[in-house]
Write a structure and sequence with these properties.
- The chain is globular and about 50 Å long.
- The N terminus is likely disordered.
- The two termini are about 20 Å apart.
- With about 190 residues, it is mostly helical.
- It has nine helices and no strands.
- Helix content is about 65%, strand content about 0%.
Amino acid sequence: MTGRSPRWRSPVESAAALAVSPRICCHAEQPGPSSAASHGQPPAARQGDDMTREYPEEQLMAFVQAMANVAASDGRVTEDERQHLDDMVVGIGLSPQDARVSALIEQEFQKPSRLTDIVGKIEIREMRAALLRMIVEVACADGEIANEERASVKEAATAFGLDVSVADELIDWTLASIKLEQREQEIMAKLL
């Protein structure tokens, strides 16, 4: 959580938290001599491996597709949004360089599908909640949210059967957290 306020959770951290959630992951790897930790892999990568074992690949691909869809919903994808998306893909145990993953992302960037069709593929409530949070984080990655992105977040919340007003709260909290982080960086720069 480099440089972020204690309340902020990056998409990778959200994916990692989802991967080790006791309700949905019963086989979280403990660091040991044969674990990925001994090979220098970051914890998120190890936890992402757990996600690929715990969730069907089609659900993980739908997860990635939904994230790419929202990032592109305003007609442009910023570098920050793309980096957040790539980090999230790695965080759930997939690779943005994998041909299928890359093609799916580019397809959503060029011609987005209907978000409700994508999110309808995701059935696990915890995965839906984590997806909504990550959708918000990608949509807000550049420190603002376009009306089209906000509408996509609300559409996803509705499709998941989640409270739209809570989705709005999450958007507002995320934007406020980003502003706090930026302010912290400004203050720290003055001290250095």
